[in-house]
């Protein structure tokens, strides 16, 4: 009598994690998260790898939804992962030591920044679209990407001076 009836809706469980796109996720990493939900870590890892194959060698957040032991994997790209994808460079070879940090080199045009800001506007806490664009420019500054040849900080100043027009 204490079990769930057929008329009761299934409960959704979510797992959030950051993975390197297109690379297999270690089953040992997934086991503590998937075990309590009754999901085999190997299958979850394979589904995550398939869902992130478009984001090869880019660290990207994913959401794994489990309903009735069925898995749905959704990629939730962050600003830095969208910027790296917009650069369109060849996948990077990751060094084995954890101490090495990347500095990305590249130049994006302002239109690409506006496109990224449109994709992330729903996540942003900025009051205006210009604020969202400034957040993306700040991310460019922190990962070492230039915008039309200007650093992120300089691009923010140019935006405030009216150098670029933003769509409404």
UniProtKB/TrEMBL annotation:
<dbReference type="InterPro" id="IPR000911">
    <property type="entry name" value="Ribosomal_uL11"/>
</dbReference>
<keyword id="KW-0689">Ribosomal protein</keyword>
<dbReference type="InterPro" id="IPR036796">
    <property type="entry name" value="Ribosomal_uL11_N_sf"/>
</dbReference>
<keyword id="KW-0687">Ribonucleoprotein</keyword>
<feature type="domain" description="Large ribosomal subunit protein uL11 C-terminal">
    <location>
        <begin position="77"/>
        <end position="147"/>
    </location>
</feature>
<dbReference type="Pfam" id="PF00298">
    <property type="entry name" value="Ribosomal_L11"/>
</dbReference>
<dbReference type="GO" id="GO:0006412">
    <property type="term" value="P:translation"/>
</dbReference>
<dbReference type="GO" id="GO:0022625">
    <property type="term" value="C:cytosolic large ribosomal subunit"/>
</dbReference>
<dbReference type="GO" id="GO:0070180">
    <property type="term" value="F:large ribosomal subunit rRNA binding"/>
</dbReference>
<feature type="domain" description="Large ribosomal subunit protein uL11 N-terminal">
    <location>
        <begin position="15"/>
        <end position="70"/>
    </location>
</feature>
<dbReference type="InterPro" id="IPR036769">
    <property type="entry name" value="Ribosomal_uL11_C_sf"/>
</dbReference>
<protein>
    <recommendedName>
        <fullName>60S ribosomal protein L12</fullName>
    </recommendedName>
</protein>
<comment type="similarity">
    <text>Belongs to the universal ribosomal protein uL11 family.</text>
</comment>
<dbReference type="Pfam" id="PF03946">
    <property type="entry name" value="Ribosomal_L11_N"/>
</dbReference>
<dbReference type="InterPro" id="IPR020784">
    <property type="entry name" value="Ribosomal_uL11_N"/>
</dbReference>
<dbReference type="InterPro" id="IPR020783">
    <property type="entry name" value="Ribosomal_uL11_C"/>
</dbReference>
<dbReference type="GO" id="GO:0003735">
    <property type="term" value="F:structural constituent of ribosome"/>
</dbReference>
<dbReference type="InterPro" id="IPR020785">
    <property type="entry name" value="Ribosomal_uL11_CS"/>
</dbReference>
